[in-house]
Amino acid sequence: MHNIKDLMRQAQKMQARLAKLQEELADKTVESSVGGGMVTAVVNGRQELVSIKIDPEVVNAEEVEMLEDLIVAAVNDALRKSQQMVQEEMTKLTGGMKIPGLF
C-alpha cells in the first residue's frame, strides 16, 4: 500500500511538472526561413503559428503560387521544429521514458 502512495505522489509531481512545461513551451518559439529568407514562419511550443514575415520582393501578383508554396514550406518546417523542441523538452522531463498519451 505504501508503494501505491509513493507512485501516486510521483504521478502528481510529474503532472505538475508537465503543466509547468506546457506553460513554458507556449513562450518558446522556433523559426523557419525558406526561399533564401523570402518567407519566415515562427511557431511556438503549442504548435501555433505566431508570426509570418514575407519579403516584399516576393509579393508579385504573377507569382502568387510560388509565394503560397513558400508560405506552406516555412510553416510546415517551423511546425516540425516545434514538435522536435517539444519532444526534446518532454524527454528531459521524463528522463527518456516513453509515457503513452504525452505528446
Automatic annotation (TrEMBL):
Any single GO CC term annotated in Swiss-Prot or TrEMBL for this entry: bacterial nucleoid
Keywords: Cytoplasm, DNA-binding
Keyword Zinc: no
Source taxon at top rank: Bacteria
GO molecular-function terms, A-Z: DNA binding
Chief location bin: cytoplasm
Membrane spanning stretches: none
Any single Pfam family the record assigns to this protein: YbaB_DNA_bd
Cellular localisation: Cytoplasm, Nucleoid
Assembly: Homodimer.
HAMAP family: DNA_YbaB_EbfC
Role: Binds to DNA and alters its conformation. May be involved in regulation of gene expression, nucleoid organization and DNA protection.
Similarity comment text for this entry: Belongs to the YbaB/EbfC family.
Protein name as catalogued: Nucleoid-associated protein G4V39_04840
